[in-house]
Model the fold of this input.
Amino acid sequence: MNTSNHFSRLTPEQFASIGAELDAIRNEVLADLGERDAQYIRKLVKRQRQLEVGGRVMMMLPPTWPLGVAALSTSKILDNMEIGHNVMHGQYDWMGDPALNSKNFDWDSADTAKNWKHTHNYEHHTFTNVLNKDHDIGYGLLRMSEDQKWEPRFLANLPLTVLLHAFFQHFVAVQNLKLEEVMIYKTKSRKQLAKEFKPVWKKMRKQLGKDYLMYPLLAGPFAPLVFVGNVAANAARNVWACAVIFNGHFPEDVEQFPESVVENETRGQWYVRQMLGSANFSGGRLMHIMSGNLSFQIEHHLFPDLPAHRYAELSPKVQAVCEKYGLPYNTGPFWKQTLSTWKRIAKLSLPGRGKRNATPAASAIAAADAPLPLAA
Amino acid sequence: MSMTTRLIPRRNAFENTLESGLRRLLDTRVAALLTYPHGVDNYMQQFDRRWSLNEVRASVVNTHAQTADTVTVTLRPNANWKGFAAGQYVRLSVDIDGVRRTRCFSPANSAHERGLIELTCKIGPDSIVSRYLRDRAQPGEVMIVAQAEGQFALPELRPERILLISGGSGITPVLSMLRTLTDEGHSGPITFLHYCRSAVDELYAADVDAIADRHANVQVLRCYAEGLGGQLHGVFDADQLRQAVPDYAQAETFLCGPPGMMQAVQAAYDSQGLSDQLHLEHFSAAPVAIDAEGAEGDVRFARSERLAANSGATLLDQAESAGLRPESGCRMGICHACTCRKTAGRVRDTRTGQISDAGEADIQICVSVPVGTVTLDL
Done:
């Protein structure tokens, strides 16, 4: 599959009806929002807080230390994924509860809510998988697209990917600063960087102080235990979150797009780009909750502000639309998507376009989008 | 309607000391850092929904219906409640079908009853909150209450001669005044003049009678529009007032009732040059005349990237029709919950008819109607 196929094959009328059909799915949910969604998210917040408090206490005593680490890891994952990520998307703004409102919410992560909403909600969700616009393609650190120009630093693609997983929250925290523009491309001044780093450091400092100073101190003689436990819990959350996110956009068949694609893009075309640029993975209910329902990355990218626990119900409807218009619906087991992602990252550490040379997506779409008549 | 009551056990001194100690411990920077970024409240509320460091949260003690279209709710606020001045109102927020709804109600109980808030709410055809309170609210349920607000209140220095005039469910703030005054042993003469449709629709009739029985300085006058009973009949008019309360010009008058009645009382006072002695609460907003014919231009909701043709309704109504859910409260220009930045365009204030400047300003969208194209940061 490549972009050109779908973008040149579908007619403006088809794009329009794809847009209308997906809008209808969305409106149906909007009209049905209510008690069920409120109860779901409140219950989840409650479980997360209980796990966090329980985990932090258990971590202070040697016999319960492993349980404590497991509970705190789980709580941090829930806080960031199914609660934080989704609340900050505005999925629960309709409830009018300040504690669950995207304007107010902050998460247990080094990244500030404000920066996250810019790089993620705006840049990543509007320009999903558009090269040079969606900073999630490589985070300025990795080469993750065939159309990204190769540089010698990308020889370290694989070890850097490991590093990104391990320290994911801090990489995400500085993502908005675009460090590569200062360190590699010299298009941004250090002064500007220092200014932008200030609010980030303020948040990082509090997070580090909490996990690595305050809670260890509270444990008295068991301070080292708590310190190590927090390192483990943060690392577990980092690796898991990063893996889930990579699986959502970087398995081999997921497409990336040149900047020209967003010019005069219609709602239908935007929807199609979201579907082609995302991948799901399969799993049970626990897997979906722990991944913040990003196991339904396709549904999430179509409807980023619908409560995520609804994606499972929407999935058959979205698949039906895909089938009707001959669009791929990329899904598979977690391990398979992960393997595919790592294979792509490995290939891209070397110069050249890898296998994808055979189907030059970018040039094809550049040619294809010119004659494409755009629906109003 | 049956009376549902659940007794809330009194706490002993030990429990109180324990709680105040815990509160002091949790109201520290250390506690704030340990619970960063969610905050202490967010953790404590998972164990007790009434708990908060600053917010007033109240649990429902009981609900009962005095008349067919009203509900009376008694709430027990947490320790953050600072009480109210008789006549003031509170903003009550209730989660109904997942959505938080906020409305303003005036407590009807005495301001000296520190630990309770008693609200009586009229249930109109569109009353979501009042209907919920009557039909679905359960004893023990926790609701959010804002600290009391409002200029309509008994002055700190109590006037000697007091006239309280109320209509329908507008009785609540003036009943609070009556109860407060009698609780503190006010010695001056008080006339309580209440208008309502008929004896069946009268709220707090027995309570008012009991007060009059116990306090010789309290005179109660009732005026029913229909049916038997009461000292007066019909609707408010100036002559009737002059006959029923001959010395009304010597009294400070506190008034709350439906818009038509309030206007009539205001006109009577204005014509006698007594407007300084009349204090009033607009309990319900005068209905906004929607001028759909004269509505021109568009309403632009900049942040949500929505555009709607101006329907002539209030900006809050138009925003909601456009599928937005802006924060809102009283919907009558009192509570400022809906205040929102207007970045361009002119609006008419539905209360005064005044037309705003075209520049940037914070406006209350529940009482603002666009005059031509308006852009909101919403």
Summary: DSSP finds 16 helices and no strands in chain A.
